[in-house]
């Protein structure tokens, strides 16, 4: 199963659409906030895909949750924008929350800095910001062989 992970689109609907179209095999799109409006528009435009959405600190009028959890292909995923865990100041809080919830993968945005890492059984991913000409997004491939994470440029 392929998962497209995006964050911080900041009204850049064109880049969000391009990322979705560039990954036709992605069955799931996870938007990590700061772009709730365009994420909801894309959800309507691509009804064949599962969309998982959370609000970011700039999604002021959004009623989306701050975080979510789902198990896909046997892997427990915690996803959030990250501001409630102060990710701009380090990953300790979000890593501890993921471990407390027995997550295999934790996804967050907010910093606009792309990151993919693996630490003692926990995959961490920040897809960076999809906004603008230097936008980035993440891909997670889940299979019987394991988990593969990548960061790609738009």
TrEMBL record:
InterPro entries named in the record: Calcineurin-like_PHP_lpxH (IPR024654), Metallo-depent_PP-like (IPR029052), Phosphodiesterase_MJ0936/Vps29 (IPR000979)
Keywords recorded for this protein, A-Z: Metal-binding
Coiled coil (UniProt feature): none
Broad EC category: hydrolase
Signal peptide start and end residues: none
Cofactor(s) of this protein: a divalent metal cation
Alphabetized GO MF terms: hydrolase activity; metal ion binding
Calcineurin-like phosphoesterase domain ranges (all copies): 1-142
EC number: 3.1.4.-
Record-stated family: Belongs to the metallophosphoesterase superfamily. YfcE family.
Protein name per its UniProtKB record: Phosphoesterase
Organism: Caproiciproducens galactitolivorans
